[in-house]
């Protein structure tokens, strides 16, 4: 690739051709402010905050989308540029509902930071803040268009990454809004509630529905026995909310906090992840034996389930009938656990802490009442947990680490890796291999199934069968697989699909920013949890064994079918 | 006035290949196809010094060269017939009167740049012209002028008519491309320019109707002959659309080098009812407002450029003394506030801020601070907007502030000399 010499603020730099001015400047630590720019997305060039002067040009150029040319003389910080950027920012602010103090993103808002950086002290422009209604139509996601600054990041993630297309730019000019078609509410379109739009929103225009008050109320209700489960991806991300490096594992501190604020039982979703592997592994074996409904598709990601129900109902038969670990936990808590502790299930409240916004909607599915009650009562996200910790005044970093309660506190490393893309597959292979062959699997790390890539595949010889598996994350990638299945061209036995890019660690309820760089650190931490686990295979989990002995009898047995499996509906618009 | 590129319009049956050919039609294409290599065609266009007639006046031959230089096997030629600039209706004359001339221009272009597929994007409101083109394409297909092995040669080209729903921004070439692709008309950032990354990411040549209408004549007569029209820096002729307070309104073909005064007073018969001329807006709503004192300016890219003025589409809106500058600007800004696509901050937000300020001034609630703010916003729109729409939207404001600043101040002081606005403030005529 050809090299070019350019000058940025008097500094000479040699860069590859096709480098943008923004990239060139960053190479020499000149920080041009950006706003619509997102490191994992396409360059948009919408916001115009990154304008710079180029000698010989009679207008500014946007640094993010302008490639350098040989000999370009670029200035990034003149009085004229500073004032122009400030004016552009003031225009954005004039159309932004700027009630920072009550905003969900107060303190973690790109618009706030930019206003500080560009030193906006007063805004003398006319204000154009409308009073648009806030869309609270669904259990997962809230949209407040009054705060939207029209950067287009949410639209890109919804269309290009997830292939859902629930929201789009409607109208034009100053009437332009980001909204579902015909300005409908989110619940009226085929939104899968993955919350990826939340994770890329620079401001507080999209956020999760906050259920923390319901949790506090439950804990304070002395008549209720309140238990909580925590998903694998939460423990490697929460620390970010408290200034810790991404990928810090804070499991013990969270357990300690939850117990301190009054939960009667603090359990681990990793346990039901292990259980899922037993049920799903046996289901896979059964399907392989019968040669039916292959490839089998995983079913633990509720955004993915909604996607299939909405857009590929003809593929529903391929989905595993296993409930997600969250829902297995709820169903068991209000049956097996209730019986064990001798508490009437109507007095039990099950709270989940999830990296996911779609889990809130999943918990409210009408099928998820097999215990006779709503199996999971309240779902909060990692961000909401952080909010509760901040509210409580407890210094979480100073808490002693504690262990989960029994019985649902013992889990294997295989359960932990559910939190990362490829994890469910890896956990399943560890178990299926040993169950089928009766031999111990020597190399249990399936490295080629790990990592943030959108599509991965592998073949494993299990007994006499060469099992072909694939792993995808991000719904746009899933679409590719679904189309293959529809055409009968997917010759896989088992496919793991995670709705969110990177898997659950990149879920819509995780701390913001949730960039690929951050996600990779979370993934590494997940495998660290696995590596340091005493048990690394689900079928070796002693509590799972006990559960079958005492209660479920056998995998895919009658009780399992009643409590741990579910069914799906055609939710397509046709 | 001349009759060069407009020589067919109105004189022949637009759908008769025979009548078009009898008057010299397709001589240019046949010469190119049988006697010239693609690069010779491009050189001829470059020699002719033809510049784009859509508004940006980019050298046509150079644009062709860029597309030709791209290695892709799939390339496109697009005719921009989305004539949406207010006060511009010159392409319509060609579209209605001489469709084969435009198609011939596209065919020569396709031959030169190596494209086999073309689109003509006709303004949504021009439904009649869409029908004419569909029929013209059919005629030419039947006669072997479109399709495979054209005139028995190893050259293939076909085209389709496309149309939007009437958004002004779709005249901007990248928004137009988005629209053909089936997306909402929103401009892309440039670079990459369409010659490198155009329709469906392929190298694409986008030329205006009038530009393409020049092509057959340049090739058939030769660049030297062509350059006898016009001036040294601006060869050829220009179709101008004259509207407003003049006696004769309409489309006229003039040679470059003609002055605005000649156009208004000689060709168009002067101002209606012998009133005083206030200003001329050149190039449509996105063009500069030029006061009476500059009427001797020639239509010539270089001359105009020296005054910071663009010829734009060649629309000439003549405005007499009875028009209030503020009222005029209000209409212009409202237009842009309606037509902005909303993609970039400065255009999306800038127009409505200016609308609001103008409103305030018109109602006598303005202050000098408003003028300052308006200049700041207009300037940032011009200098920072993503596409030509936002960059050109404040041209009328900036030029009227330059030439008619006094009228703005009068309104701020509560006075409208045209009696159009009703400022509430104190009347200080000599203030």
TrEMBL record, chain A:
UniProt cofactor(s): [4Fe-4S] cluster
Domain 4Fe-4S His(Cys)3-ligated-type: 80-119
Residues annotated as domain 2Fe-2S ferredoxin-type: 2-80
SMART domains named among the record's database cross-references: Fe_hyd_SSU (SM00902), NADH-G_4Fe-4S_3 (SM00929)
Organism the protein comes from: Alkaliphilus hydrothermalis
Protein name listed in UniProt: Iron-only hydrogenase group A
Domain 4Fe-4S ferredoxin-type stretches: 139-169, 180-211
Keywords from the UniProt entry: 4Fe-4S, Coiled coil, Iron, Iron-sulfur, Metal-binding
Regions annotated as coiled coil: 104-131
Automatic annotation (TrEMBL), chain B:
Domain of life: Bacteria
Phylogenetic classification of the source organism: Bacteria, Bacillati, Bacillota, Clostridia, Peptostreptococcales
InterPro entries tied to this protein: NADH-UbQ_OxRdtase_51kDa_CS, Nuo51_FMN-bd, Nuo51_FMN-bd_sf, Nuop51_4Fe4S-bd, Nuop51_4Fe4S-bd_sf
Keywords for the protein's UniProt record, in alphabetical order: 4Fe-4S, Iron, Iron-sulfur, Metal-binding
Gene3D superfamilies recorded: 3.10.20.600, 6.10.250.1450, NADH-ubiquinone oxidoreductase 51kDa subunit (3.40.50.11540), NADH-ubiquinone oxidoreductase 51kDa subunit, iron-sulphur binding domain (1.20.1440.230)
Record domain NADH-ubiquinone oxidoreductase 51kDa subunit iron-sulphur binding: where: 326-371
Name of the protein this chain belongs to: NADH-quinone oxidoreductase subunit F
Similarity comment: Belongs to the complex I 51 kDa subunit family.
Organism name: Alkaliphilus hydrothermalis
């Amino acid at each position: 690739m050809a090299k070019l010499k350019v000058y940025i603020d008097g500094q000479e730099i040699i860069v590859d051709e096709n480098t943008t001015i923004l990239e060139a400047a960053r190479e020499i630590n000149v920080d041009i402010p950006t706003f619509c720019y997102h490191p994992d997305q396409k360059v948009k060039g919408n916001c115009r905050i990154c304008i710079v002067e180029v000698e010989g040009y009679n207008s500014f150029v946007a640094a993010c989308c302008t490639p350098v040319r040989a000999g370009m003389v670029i200035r990034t910080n003149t009085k004229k540029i500073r004032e122009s950027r400030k004016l552009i920012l003031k225009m954005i602010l004039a159309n932004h509902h700027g009630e920072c103090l009550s905003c969900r993103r107060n303190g973690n808002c790109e618009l706030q930071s930019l206003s500080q950086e560009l030193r906006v002290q007063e805004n003398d422009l006319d204000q154009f803040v409308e009073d648009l209604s806030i869309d609270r139509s669904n259990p997962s996601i809230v949209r407040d268009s009054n705060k939207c600054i029209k950067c287009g990041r949410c639209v890109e993630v919804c269309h290009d990454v997830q292939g859902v297309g629930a929201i789009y730019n409607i109208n034009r000019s100053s009437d332009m809004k980001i909204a579902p078609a015909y300005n409908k509410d989110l619940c009226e379109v085929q939104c899968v509630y993955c919350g990826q739009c939340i994770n890329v929103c620079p401001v507080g225009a999209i956020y999760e529905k906050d259920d923390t008050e319901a949790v506090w109320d439950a804990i304070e209700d002395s008549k209720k026995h309140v238990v909580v489960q925590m998903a694998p991806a939460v423990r490697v991300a929460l620390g970010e909310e408290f200034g810790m490096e991404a990928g810090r594992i804070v499991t013990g501190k969270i357990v300690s906090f939850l117990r301190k604020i009054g939960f009667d039982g603090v359990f681990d979703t990793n346990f039901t992840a292990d259980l899922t592997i037993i049920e799903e592994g046996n289901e896979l074996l059964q399907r392989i034996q019968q040669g039916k409904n292959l490839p089998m598709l995983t079913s633990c990601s509720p955004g993915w389930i909604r996607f299939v129900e909405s857009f590929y109902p003809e593929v529903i038969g391929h989905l595993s009938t296993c409930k997600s670990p969250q829902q297995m936990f709820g169903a068991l808590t209000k049956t097996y656990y209730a019986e064990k502790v001798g508490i009437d299930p109507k007095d039990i409240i099950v709270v989940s802490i999830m990296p996911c916004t779609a889990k809130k909607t999943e918990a409210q599915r009408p099928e998820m009442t097999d215990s006779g009650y709503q199996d999971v009562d309240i779902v909060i996200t990692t961000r909401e947990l952080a909010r509760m910790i901040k509210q409580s005044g407890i210094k979480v970093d100073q808490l002693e680490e504690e262990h989960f309660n029994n019985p649902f506190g013992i889990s294997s490393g295989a359960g932990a890796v559910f939190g990362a893309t490829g994890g469910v597959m890896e956990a399943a292979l560890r178990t299926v291999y040993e169950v089928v062959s009766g031999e111990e699997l020597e190399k249990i790390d399936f490295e080629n199934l790990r990592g943030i890539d959108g599509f991965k595949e592998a073949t494993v010889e299990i007994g006499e069968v060469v099992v072909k598996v694939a792993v995808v994350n991000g719904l746009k990638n899933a679409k590719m697989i679904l189309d293959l299945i529809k055409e009968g061209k997917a010759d896989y036995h088992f496919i793991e699909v995670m709705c969110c890019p990177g898997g659950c660690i990149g879920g819509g309820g995780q701390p913001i920013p949730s960039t690929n760089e951050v996600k990779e650190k979370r993934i590494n931490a997940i495998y660290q949890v696995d590596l340091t686990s005493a048990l690394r295979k689900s079928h070796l989990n002693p509590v799972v064994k006990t559960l079958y002995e005492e209660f479920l009898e056998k995998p895919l047995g009658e009780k399992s079918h009643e409590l741990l499996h579910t069914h799906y509906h055609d939710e397509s618009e046709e | 006035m001349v009759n060069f590129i407009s020589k067919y319009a109105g004189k022949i049956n637009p759908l008769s290949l025979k009548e078009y050919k009898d008057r010299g039609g397709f001589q240019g294409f046949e010469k190119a196809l049988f006697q010239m290599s693609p690069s010779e065609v491009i050189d001829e266009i470059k020699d002719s010094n033809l510049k784009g007639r859509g508004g940006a006046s980019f050298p046509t031959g150079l644009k062709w060269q860029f597309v030709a230089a791209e290695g892709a096997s799939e390339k496109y030629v697009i005719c921009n017939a989305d004539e949406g600039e207010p006060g511009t209706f010159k392409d319509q004359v060609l579209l209605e009167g001489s469709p084969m001339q435009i198609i011939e221009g596209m065919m020569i272009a396709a031959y030169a740049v190596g494209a086999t597929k073309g689109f003509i994007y006709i303004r949504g409101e021009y439904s009649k012209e869409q029908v004419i083109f569909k029929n013209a394409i059919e005629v030419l297909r039947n006669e072997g002028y479109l399709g495979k092995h054209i005139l028995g040669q190893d050259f293939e080209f076909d085209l389709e008519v496309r149309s939007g729903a009437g958004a002004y921004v779709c005249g901007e070439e990248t928004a137009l491309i988005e629209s053909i692709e089936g997306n909402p008309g929103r401009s892309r950032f440039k670079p990459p320019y369409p010659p490198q990354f155009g329709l469906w990411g392929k190298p694409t040549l986008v030329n205006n109707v009038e530009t393409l209408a020049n092509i057959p004549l340049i090739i058939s007569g030769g660049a030297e002959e062509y350059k006898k029209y016009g001036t040294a820096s601006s060869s050829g002729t220009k179709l101008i659309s004259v509207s407003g307070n003049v006696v004769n309104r309409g489309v006229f073909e003039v040679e470059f080098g003609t002055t605005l005064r000649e156009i208004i007073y000689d060709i168009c018969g002067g101002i209606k009812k012998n009133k005083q001329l206030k200003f001329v807006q050149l190039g449509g709503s996105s063009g500069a407002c030029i006061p009476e004192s500059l009427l001797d300016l020639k239509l010539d890219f270089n001359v105009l450029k020296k005054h910071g003025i663009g010829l734009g589409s060649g629309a000439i809106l003549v405005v007499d003394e009875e028009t209030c500058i503020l009222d005029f600007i209000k209409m212009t800004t409202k237009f842009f506030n309606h037509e902005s696509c909303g993609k970039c901050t400065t255009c999306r937000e800038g127009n409505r801020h200016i609308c609001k300020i103008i409103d305030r001034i018109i109602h006598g609630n303005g202050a000098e601070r408003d003028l300052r703010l308006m200049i700041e916003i207009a300037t940032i729109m011009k200098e920072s907007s993503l596409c030509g729409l936002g960059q050109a939207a404040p041209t009328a404001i900036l030029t009227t502030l330059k030439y008619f600043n006094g009228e703005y101040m009068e309104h701020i002081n509560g006075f409208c000399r045209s009696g159009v606005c009703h400022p509430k403030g104190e009347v200080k005529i000599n203030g």
